[in-house]
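Suppose you are handed a protein chain with no further information: no name, no annotation, nothing but its sequence. What can you learn? This example shows the usual starting point.
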Amino acid sequence: MVKLPKSGVAYQSLFERDPAQREPDVTLAEIVSSLGLKPLTSRAEREIRDRLGFAMGKWEARRATFDLADVISSLNSHAKALETFNAFAVIAKGGHLKGRYLDRDMELCYQLARELREELRLDDIAAAYAHLADFADRAAGMASAARAAAKRLKGIRGTGGGSPYLWYDGFTAVLLDLCKKNKIEPKAGIDRSSGEPVGGLAKMASAFERLLPPWMRSPTPDAMVKRLNRSLSRLARSAAALSR
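A reasonable first move is to predict its three-dimensional structure. Written in structure tokens, the prediction is:
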């Protein structure tokens, strides 16, 4: 199923509390302190917040997608509805129509013009017909644009959009930078005896995931380590491609 993403850039705030309030969860500064990392400057903290916020926004943006077939169908439906005004434009301009619905369309046009005169407080029925004709002309243009948009979207080919965890790459990249600045080896694994994450990167991710909303966190330590290692692989491939 081809998906069409919403336009714009998504951003999401960290899931933390106000340091002045006694509420659950922790702040970014407390996470950094608990890991024994170097304290962040105000600028560094803002940068990390922004990078994590945009990474989290990608998760939200992926969920906020539309089925392309539905969009195309809706565009064609709207075009069809707008095209019904074509007959009104001809009638309102005093033209001649042929067809089995001629009498019906003429009556519809008359009733619309009559109500338009009242609603818009127009001078006479001729002004109402002119108003209706102008609207019908605009409707024809919008119908044409809708048909063109549907045709263009039909040419889009794609898959489901790749891994649902691509947003985790941005999260992992922040942790890698912190590992580098604090001289921590960026390793991530699982202790098969205890089931707990091992390695500097895994321990850091476990702490930093507390800044994610609960529904974005890894369900298990093993799942978190798999996310990390897949992100590491994607980031390495991206870096290699850029260096060519």
